[in-house]
Automatic annotation (TrEMBL):
Residues 76-401 form the Amidohydrolase-related domain. Belongs to the metallo-dependent hydrolases superfamily. NagA family. This is N-acetylglucosamine-6-phosphate deacetylase. Residues 33-47 have a biased composition (Low complexity). PANTHER family: N-ACETYLGLUCOSAMINE-6-PHOSPHATE DEACETYLASE (PTHR11113:SF14). Gene3D superfamilies: Metal-dependent hydrolases, Urease, subunit C, domain 1.
Length: 407
């Protein structure tokens, strides 16, 4: 048996809270043990105290030949889970297998150890073919499934989707995409107010696929009807939907107030005002928020011209917009940046941010038994952060994707 790895002395974020001087023991691809070490009081761990001994406290039963990695002064959190991601590293999930792997690996370098690949509106025949390719990579464990964003969305709220390729959510066509994904479809975003929308929501729920409300012009009442039919996710809440009004509360109010709904938020400083983000957290509660990237090709690369499906995108100062029309076209966000911003700029509690980037999306995907928290028996997916919440290491299934940077 290969020697275990012991990451010792960190501030570890567990489902039960934050512990100081904690240790995580990794054996093979799994977490073998988690030792709480010192105080379990989150307030006591708000800022690290320098250790008063030569080495970190180790858990009992550590193998004599174990590799001890001293990570005092750092945070250990679960690997990130991204529900909604179109690409990165100059490649998209609408491309070849090589493109898809490039995008996946780019986001792994930023802490996303579990990723759902999102498509963008395109010709139905192309989406069916792409679903087959993505399902193969899901079967190989490279991605956690497929999210179809479009073509079943409202032309009134199309955002960065090609209007001529949009269509009503005919349940037969929705079923065609599900079948093409060979059991790997995880989510479909649609505008439930369109003809066939409610029936499509019911179809998705019956097949165990998440029905997400987004790119929608629905009223409050229509959104409530969709939730009652089985919709459980708000696709990038606030974006690509009517604003909240005091006489026309619209979909935002319905999605925030219903405890059955998880709301996606893009915390990049562009898609949402900080007050809107705080409103969502306050009203939905930390257990119902999932941070997403909605990333496109430029994530991890930089400014320039890119394609999002059939549409050309200009990225300037890190903000992606359509060349024609200027609509925001996804983001260049990575989840490590979202994590850091949420804690240091939005001033959200670390435990709530961990829930939003790991536990909540893992539960939604039905994979919380394997990922989403640091617990014995789960995959050894973890992220190492420094005191300022900058990424300093990434482990996926027990192997370092980013070697620890402890200098």
């Amino acid at each position: 048996m290969a020697p275990s790895k012991v990451l010792a002395g960190a501030r570890v974020v567990l489902p039960t809270g934050i512990v100081t001087d904690g240790s995580v023991v990794v054996q093979g691809t799994r977490i073998a043990a988690v030792s709480p070490g010192g105080s379990g009081d989150p307030a006591a761990s708000a800022s690290p105290a320098p250790p008063d001994r030569e080495g970190p406290r180790l858990p009992g039963g550590v193998q004599a030949n174990a590799e001890i990695i001293d990570v005092r002064g750092h945070w250990l959190v679960p690997g990130f889970v991204d529900l909604h991601n179109h690409g990165g590293g100059g490649a998209s999930f609408s491309g070849t297998a090589e493109d898809i792997l490039t995008a996946v690996r780019t986001h792994r370098l930023h802490g996303t150890t579990t990723l759902v690949a999102s498509t963008v509106t395109d010709d139905m025949d192309f989406l069916v073919r792409q679903a087959g390719l993505l399902s193969e990579l899901a079967e190989q464990g490279e991605i956690a499934g497929i999210h179809f964003e479009g073509p079943f969305i409202s032309p009134c709220r199309k955002g960065a989707h090609s209007e001529e390729l949009l269509r009503d959510p005919d349940p037969a066509e929705v079923r065609k995409l599900i079948d093409a994904a060979r059991g790997r479809a995880r989510m479909v975003t649609l505008a439930a107010e369109l003809p066939g929308g409610i029936d499509s929501v019911r179809l998705l729920a019956e097949h165990g696929v998440i029905a997400a409300i987004g790119h929608t012009d629905a009223t409050y009442e229509q959104t409530v009807q969709a939730i009652d039919a089985g919709a459980t996710v708000a696709t990038h809440l606030f974006n690509a939907m009517p604003p909240l009004g005091h006489r026309a509360p619209g979909p935002i109010t319905a999605l925030l107030e219903d405890e059955r709904v998880t709301v996606e938020l893009i915390d990049d400083g562009t898609h949402l005002h900080a007050a809107a983000l705080r409103l969502a957290f306050h009203h939905a509660g930390a257990s119902r928020v999932a941070f997403i990237t909605d990333a496109m090709d430029a994530a991890g690369i930089g400014d320039g011209r890119y394609m999002l499906g059939p549409l050309e995108v200009e990225v300037a100062d890190g903000v992606a917009r359509l060349v024609q029309g200027g609509s925001i076209a996804g983001s260049t966000l990575t989840l490590d940046r979202a994590f850091r911003r949420a804690v240091t700029v939005d001033r959200l509690p670390v435990e709530d941010v961990v829930a939003a980037v790991s536990a909540n999306p893992a539960r939604l995907l039905g994979v919380y038994d394997r990922v989403g928290s640091l617990e014995p028996g789960k995959d050894a997916d973890l992220v190492l952060l420094d005191e300022e919440f900058a990424l300093k290491g990434v482990m996926r299934r027990g192997a370092w994707v980013v070697d620890p940077q402890l200098g």
